[in-house]
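question for whoever is on the cluster today: can someone run the full assembly for these? two chains, 788 residues total. i dont have access anymore since they changed the login thing
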Amino acid sequence: MAILELQNVGYSYSGNVKNAKKVLSGLNYEFDKGVVYSITGRSGAGKTTLLSLLSGLTTPTEGKVMFDEKDLSTLDRYDYRSQQVGVVFQQFNLLPHLTVLENIILSMDASKKKFDRPKKEIALEMLNEVDLDESYANKRILKLSGGEQQRVAIARTLSFDPEVILADEPTGNLDLTTQDEIMSIFTKLAHEENRCVIIVTHSPEVAKLSDKVFNLAPLKKGAKVR
Amino acid sequence: MFVIKNAWKSITRAKGRNILIGVIVFTIAAASCVTLAIRNAASAAEESGMEGVQVTATISVDREKQMEEMKSKASSSGQSIRQMGGMESVDAIDIKDYQELAKQPSVENFYYTQSVSLNAADTNSFAAYSSSSSSSSSSSQNAMPGGGFGGMQDSGDFTITGFSSEDAMTAFTSGEDYIAEGAVWEDFSTGFNSDSVAEAVISQDLASYNNAKVGDIITLVNPHKSTETYKLYVSGIYAYQSSSSEGQGPSLSGAMDPANAIYVNTNTTAAMVEKSETSPASYTQTDSRSGQSMSRTSELTGNITPTFVFSDKDNYEAFVAAAPSVDSVVNSGSKIVTDSYKISSSDVDSYEQSIVPLQNLSKFATTLLLIVLLIGAIILIVLNIFNIRERKYEVGVLTAMGIKKPKVAAQFVCELVIVALFGIAVGAGVGAVASVPVANNLLASQVASTESSQSEQQSNFGRPEGGQGGPGGQGQSQSSNSNSSQGSQPPSGTSGKGMERMAAMTGQAATPVNYVSQVNATVNFTVLAELIGLGLLLVLISSGVAVGFVMRYEPLQILAER
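^ ran it for u. tokens below:
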């Protein structure tokens, strides 16, 4: 059973009607647990838009995004984002005035989930899982390198135990070694922890390392909404 | 909890920004605290200032109103007031009507004085005291140094003041006057005895001037009818504190000189007036200003100055409200206190005068408070706008993480409230320390400016300093067939200087105002509550902007912009 499903999904950027630009149209796809997916495609193909739709940051202008057989647009998308789906943004989107640990615990707080252990303990464990030792726990985000920030962003995503993990160009800023390490984390999350991992990428290496690739073909340039 | 926890973290991590906001809130709070304390203290002082204080009031001709009416008549007829024959006289209120008014439940006590003007019968044996070298004689003179409106009093050498009771002798009850020799009569109910002699007390100055002693009988005469004489038995000689009038003002003569005040009871003065009315003589008087000749009679005018005593200001106000509807017992069908009269209380007036600087200060404080709040609100709003724009990314991240917008907005408001509470707490502390000295300093300057404007006003009128033009400060007008009673109750507890005594005698209020110069502007719970209320209101208004921004932001948009 698919955890996420695209049913004839289309998306146009609104604004005034004349300038409305269609980026996605008639997409159908199923995402299952335990699988690492890569969404590929050329720039402007709507990869990030699709990620926004899947993460519930926005709703499709056509069709439906189904989560666990429920239409996402009918669910509380704030709750969905804070509890069901973890997003690793391209820019990491960590809060710079907070420490590593505080960033992770913030996500756990936001999820309103009950945890069987102290949050700090879980957070430290998550850091360990992304190969960051405890000395990072009280560091400010701005003191970290890009790769380290990326790992913290992943740890934050994992902390509240979401079923779906979405990552936008997670390796875009990283060197090859780090890229491989990150990818192995994602693979482990899907294969060992039975999560659905969806990675938006334009990197063929990343696509190669994933289980399934969903290639987005760009729509005809300047396609207008009918 | 989540909101407060995050707010606190955010505050501790962005110290610079929050210190700035805190300092601004502190400044607003300290200024507001002082102004609120001033306002509260002023209103408390206003409310409690006359609590349980006995109030005396009098009824007098409303000269200002009369003047206004004359002016409007004069301007419509194109004539000057003088051409119109001067101020119209107003029928005097009969003592029976005053007594009727005194029956009002609000009145605690009632007494009155009645004064007539008489001359010495034989200046060789008993003459009026004169501090100047020229001896005074019967003369027509203007009653008031300040001049009156067509006022031309035909005054004699002596002012015979009758008192209705001991209470009426306020100068004695206050200790301003005291008997140096003999005694004041005990019986106020009898005037002239069977030998047509009435008891009187005279001043020490007058007694020594004439070599008069207790037990002497002095003879006085109607200024305009030499056959009409009155015999007074000197039962006592009174002195007054700081009796010298020299160097205190203009040289006084005749009835104007306080030394020439002879005290009797009201039965005596009433009998004098009655006697003068039996067969009055006619004479012609020339107005020294207009040159017009007027026919007059020798009837004595008995000016009645009533005093109503009230247990407090509320009763006085009740009386002021009720008095105009009391029917006259003398002139049936008409009211006693007509539009031509006004009820006034020098106690209330001087109290109201005394709190003028305080009220000014309170007004000033209110204006300052509004300005501070307005500027504070603008600064806080602007700071908040910058703050929220700067933290747009944070809003995007938090909402993208699934934290609902109201929660994010609440966090921002919470941050501001926490910082503001710190600012208010420190501001209130500083304000509490500063409010009393600041309030009293400001009040002192208000008092000074009120005093200087008052003394300037007085000097513009050519009056000596220290004299406060009170109600009834205009000249008395008299005519042959009617008289007017006017002037307020002689102020009690004054220093007894010549001018004041003179003013008191002639019914002119000249009490120097003791301004309220100290105010207890302490910061109490009311002030604190108001301060916190205002502070939170300000914070909520300014954070409303932040909330507006947060609710408008879309996480996707914010994150896409980066």
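summary bc i know u wont read the tokens: The radius of gyration of chain A is 18 Å. Residues 4-216 of chain A form a domain with the Rossmann fold fold (CATH 3.40.50.300).
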